[in-house]
Design a protein that fits this description.
- By secondary structure, the chain is mainly β.
- Helix content is about 15%, strand content about 35%.
- The chain has 2 helices and 8 strands; from the N terminus they run E-H-E-E-E-E-H-E-E-E.
Length: about 140
């Protein structure tokens, strides 16, 4: 396995790894490794192209994490967070997933010049699928 060093990592806290593997598997993600949930020790890593997602807990212990236990269990997990997933051909990818994914914004050309669409996963995470681009390039800022 190749070594990948990152500075920032996205970790989504979820109550059910089975749903994660089913939903994200349909989106094209593959399981890289998994630690079966056992109290607060569950972990799952999934990858699609260069997109890496980490999932924690995978059971009811997700609700006991010190910060999150302040909120009702039915609070959407991803409220206020957008996870950006880059794909090679966003139009083709949209056609592949639009019939099963919960699309909340159709595929459109955005004011910053990139096409994208947005979905919500079974836990309320807001996912934006977009074309490959260099986020450091100010040409993609809204003008």
């Amino acid at each position: 396995m190749e070594s990948v060093l990152t500075s920032t990592q996205i970790e989504l806290h979820v109550p059910d790894f089975t749903q994660v593997k089913e939903y994200y598997g349909r989106l094209g993600f593959e399981v890289i490794w998994e630690r079966t949930p056992e109290e607060m020790k569950g972990y799952l890593i999934m990858k699609m192209d260069q997109n890496l997602l980490c999932f924690w807990a995978g059971n009811e212990y997700v609700y006991q994490q010190p910060y999150f236990k302040k909120f009702p269990n039915e609070t959407p997990r991803g409220y206020g967070v957008e996870v950006v997933i880059v794909v090679a051909d966003v139009k083709k990818y949209y056609q592949q997933v639009k019939d099963f994914a919960n699309v909340v914004e159709e595929l459109v050309l955005q004011p910053w010049g990139l096409k994208d669409f947005r979905t919500v996963d079974p836990f309320g995470y807001y996912l934006r699928f977009t074309v490959r681009h260099n986020s450091l390039d100010q040409a993609f800022a809204i003008k």
